[in-house]
Amino acid sequence: MGEYRSRLPRTRREVEHALDRLVRENRFTISVFFPLNGAVLLVASAMGWLPEPLAFNAFLILLGTLVMRSPLIVGVLPLVTRRAALGVGALTAYAYAIEYTGITTGWPYGWFEYGVELGPTVAGVPIGLPVFFIPLVMNAYLLCLLLLGDRARHTATRLGVVIATVLAMDVVLDPGAVALGFWKYYRLGPDALLFYGVPLSNYAGWVVSATIAVVVLDWAFDRDALLARLDRTEFMLDDLVSFVILWGGINLWFGNGVPVLVAGLFGIGLLRTERFDSELLKLPRSLPWRS
After folding, report:
1. How many Cα atoms within 13 Å fall on the side-chain side of residue 243?
2. Which of 67, 79, 131, 239 has the fewest CB atoms below 10 angstroms from its CB?
3. Residue 289 has what pLDDT?
């Protein structure tokens, strides 16, 4: 027992190194195996092929989301200063507040309601909401830093491109979520313009949400430190790989052509930044079918 305890990480740096190693050694399982299985289970749930309690199991949805988010969380963890923690805390409060406003007033996204349990709720808002929302914005921010290069130093360019990228992520996410029945929009007028079942008011709302979230994250984190961490941490954008596989696959099943195309563009962006590499696709020896 004493020898086991001596191997446990004792400092923050040792914990960070241990988590880095854990994610690095399990990249395929986390970022390919989990989203592929997630897409199959979610589609099977929506089609009525899974019995209770497996169909849209809230625990499995939250667990799968946390696992897929782990490369981003572990990648960002060493950069969480007091300022960054304050920014993330503010975004967490903001996410709850704007979601509650949305389901009670219809602003800014339009009237909607949840059709699937996404875990425990408070006042109708899933407590896991920040895990769904904040990483989307951070993934977009990191991808744009890499793609923009030196142009990212220009504030207006950086913020504008990231906000547009977050909106593009919702072009993939919302149609897939509506097709699954995660949430649905109502009180739609006869002349309402819909994009694969999603009212355009939703995207206007996302412009508001994305702008606030991107500005806060841009203030909270040291951009040079993020770029340095990205340079030496090959798995830091693996959560975006999961996003492409999961939501691209779900949209493909339901025939949502434009969201599939946009998901493919994110895949191209990952290829250009050399984040979809041979190490990611390497099967870990721990998988059951590996000898």
Report:
1. 34
2. 79
3. 46
User: Above 80 in pLDDT, residue 285?
Assistant: no
Domains of the chain: which residue ranges?
Answer: 31-272
Q: What is the pTM of this model?
A: 0.92
CA pair distance 248, 259, nearest whole angstrom: 7
Residue pair 180/46 in contact (Cβ under 8 Å)? The answer is yes
Nearest to 61 by CA among 35, 83, 80: 35
Helices 34-46 and 238-253, axial angle in degrees (round to 10): 30
Residue 181 parent element (H or E): none
Residue partners of 191: CB distance under 8 A and separation at least 6 = none
Q: What is the pLDDT of residues 158-201, one digit of tens each?
A: 999 999 999 999 999 999 999 999 999 999 988 889 999 999 99
Distance CA 275, CA 234 (A): 7
Q: DSSP states of 193-229 as a string?
A: -EETTEEHHHHHHHHHHHHHHHHHHHHHS-HHHHHHH
- What gap in Å lies between CA 260 and CA 248, rounded to an integer? 5
Distance in angstroms between the alpha carbons of the first and the last residue of the chain: 31
Q: Partners of 113 in the beta sheet?
A: 184
